[in-house]
Amino acid sequence: MAQKIKLSTIADALGVSTATVSLALRDSALVASTTRERIKTHAREIGYIYNRRAASLRTSRSGIVGVVVHDIMNPFFAEILRSIETELDRSRQTFILSNHYDDLEKQRNFVDTLLQLGADGVIMSPAIGTPPEDIRMAEDNGLPAVLIARDVEGAAVPAFRGDDSYGTALATRHLIELGHTRIAMVGGTDGTSTGRDRYQGYKNAMEAAGLSVDAAWRIPGPRTKQAGFDATERFLSLPGKPTAAVCWNDLSAIGLMNGLFRAGLVAGRDVSVIGYDDLEEAAIATPALTTVWNGQREVGHRAASALVARLNGEEVSAEQELIHPELRIRASTGKPHERN
Amino acid sequence: MAQKIKLSTIADALGVSTATVSLALRDSALVASTTRERIKTHAREIGYIYNRRAASLRTSRSGIVGVVVHDIMNPFFAEILRSIETELDRSRQTFILSNHYDDLEKQRNFVDTLLQLGADGVIMSPAIGTPPEDIRMAEDNGLPAVLIARDVEGAAVPAFRGDDSYGTALATRHLIELGHTRIAMVGGTDGTSTGRDRYQGYKNAMEAAGLSVDAAWRIPGPRTKQAGFDATERFLSLPGKPTAAVCWNDLSAIGLMNGLFRAGLVAGRDVSVIGYDDLEEAAIATPALTTVWNGQREVGHRAASALVARLNGEEVSAEQELIHPELRIRASTGKPHERN
DNA sequence: CTGAAAGCGCTTACAG
DNA sequence: CTGAAAGCGCTTACAG
To answer: Sorted alphabetically, which keywords does the UniProt record give (chains A, B) (predicted)?
Structure first.
């Protein structure tokens, strides 16, 4: 490993001060352009590596942004992350990622790490049960936060998410318009704002159509393909045999469709299945999945922009418009079909 | 934002030196246990936040490990990342993730960022075309590297991956044993060691069985669901109408199965389709996908352990055993069926 | 346009 | 067992 090269190495070699080198490398107009070029060329030639820790210690800006979500392996978050990445790349911020798996302790550890590293900000999809104090604590220690996908009441920071109640109502209404009257809701939880909103949207649409809502038709839980797959049996033996399922998300819907297929049933023909999110793979699923576009890219883009704005000292209102979901009709929903 | 609390704040309040506080907080036996407890309690009470930048500047260890892969959104890498995460959590390393999307410049930028942050090491699945010098450069600047999934000839660092040639031969042989003689290869590239090895394994198995290999039966490229889906038409119009497809990975296989389904064909009955990787979703795909287990968790686990070992000053040989793939027979393969 | 000097908040010999 | 002091490698007033 070569001898450590620092600013003073360059300064000594070129007979200038470290102040001049520091300014030159950052393209300051304070340095004469000839000097600047001479310095930059030399730095490149000897392979100088800028020490961000030292700089950050001095300036107290680190160029690091933290992003914490439930699970980056989940394509829903992965799609959001992709657009966050695009946005942060643009403002040359490095981002550190973490899963919290809805474990508050893991989330706290991560926020702690960010504070220790002097991160500039954090984008989080808060773990279930996150108290507003956890977010205030970050803010109070100089770590501005922006929320995605879920809100935390009382946190008073900007949150970017879709209008879940409206979106699930859209999905439910689509099934009702096809003629379904017995509609199940598969997946989700009351532990998050999102979960409560989606169930509410489903109930609203049912009641608005004069249909009764049977609490037994709710199968809470599933949020993954595997869980949707595993819920198939329970769905098929539900009282009153619902003819359609509003699923928590595309993953659980695809899992359910796969499960139905194993049982000899085809979604869209024997049972209507509707998802939520409109993941990239929804369109190529078998059969193509009817779903509700949830604006992942939009969420990521807006959240990252808002955080960058906050980093630049701009005020960003904690009141943010919900993103407007849209129905995407494909092949997994159709007229009701009675099973026996 | 509260007044900045540092070691000296605590030292002053308790009438001890910063050295003692520093040692106490790190549980040094050099500090009397009563003093230690007094310090730790006080630190917690006033909400002290450890400044890792300052510490790292002094010790030149940062507790940061970089991980760069083609695309974290790809479940293949996501599964590897999950086991890397488990391993790094154990040794309390923070990890920074990045996609390179096979863009050498993006990969270089990331390595640069790691160097600037004083990262302790990097785990990388090198971008296509990565020259060994890129890896030497990192190593020479004190950033030990460990490779996953792909190797870089001449890099002389440990690389953890499966025996691709053997694995694809397994897959191909399985089809041959079922009676297939015209077998296509869908997806992959010659740009990586993995790509070359897999094509070689396919050819080996075909030739060993006395079957001819038609270059036209190779459809290079697809590595995603969408691409596998899009390749369906080409596959169906291949000269000599192959009855089976060895796919690059599970994603392209699932995409192809979905495409076949749209064309009214069912994998395992009309066409045999075999994947590679054995992703979590392979078992619940429709139909359940026959594939080759590629040891993602094993790769992640071994790579992270090896890096941690290197960080602790242990020697890790650049010669690493290949992970032994295993066949997983499910429903997407069967006896040959002639189409017309 | 350039330089000398202080300081960011830690840790680590060294002395006692 | 504890303290005084130097130093990690930058940046930023300040002076010239």
So the answer is: DNA-binding, Repressor, Transcription, Transcription regulation
Q: Note the pLDDT of residue A1.
A: 41
Give, in Å, how far the C1' of C6 lies from the CA of A121: 29
Shared domain for B81 and B141, answered yes or no, is yes
Which nucleotides of strand D come closer than 7 angstroms to any CB of the protein? Answer: 1-5, 7-13
In this structure, are A154 and A266 located in the same domain? no
pLDDT (tens digit per residue) in B21-46 = 999 999 988 889 899 999 999 999 99
* Domain contains A337: no
Nearest CA in chain A to B110: A94
Together in a domain, A179 and A231:
yes
What are the pLDDT tens digits along chain B (340 aa)?
446 899 999 999 999 999 999 999 999 888 898 999 999 999 999 999 999 999 999 998 999 999 999 998 888 999 999 999 999 999 989 989 899 999 999 999 999 999 999 999 999 999 999 999 999 999 999 999 999 999 999 999 999 999 999 999 999 999 999 999 999 999 988 888 889 999 999 999 999 999 999 999 999 999 999 999 999 999 999 999 999 999 999 999 999 999 999 999 999 999 999 999 999 999 989 899 999 999 999 999 999 999 999 999 899 999 888 999 999 999 999 999 987 6
Of all residues in chain B, the one with the smallest CA distance to A227 is B284
Give residues lining strand C (CB < 7 Å).
Answer: A 15-20, 23, 29-33, 35, 54, 57-58, 60; B 4, 6-8, 18-19, 22-23, 25-26, 48-51, 54-55, 57-59
Cβ pair B72:A75 closer than 8 A: no
Same domain, A170 and A290: yes
Classify residue B82: in a domain, yes or no. Answer: yes
Q: Same domain, yes or no, for B68 and B146?
A: yes
**Residue B252: inside a domain, yes or no?**
yes
Residues B181 and B237 grouped into a single domain: yes
Number of structural domains (chain B) is: 3
Is residue A22 located within the same domain as residue A77? no
Domain containing B235 — which CATH number?
Answer: 3.40.50.2300
Cβ within 8 Å, pair A281-B225: yes
Tell me the nearest-neighbour CA distance from A331 into chain B, angstroms. 11
List the single protein residue with the shortest CA to C1' distance from C9: B54
Contact A78 B72 (CB under 8 A): yes
**Across the interface, which of B53, B75, B280 has its CB nearest the CB of A117?**
B53
- Measured CA A7 to C1' C1 distance, in angstroms: 19
Q: Which residues of B touch A115 (CB under 8 A)?
A: 49
Of B47, B57, B280, the CB nearest to A53: B57
Of A96, A112, A262, the CB nearest to B96: A96
**Whole-number distance in Å between A61 CA and D13 C1':** 18
* Domain range enclosing B223: 164-294
**Whether A136 and A228 share a structural domain:** no
The C-alpha angle with vertex B59 and arms to B55 and B60, in degrees rounded to 5, equals 105
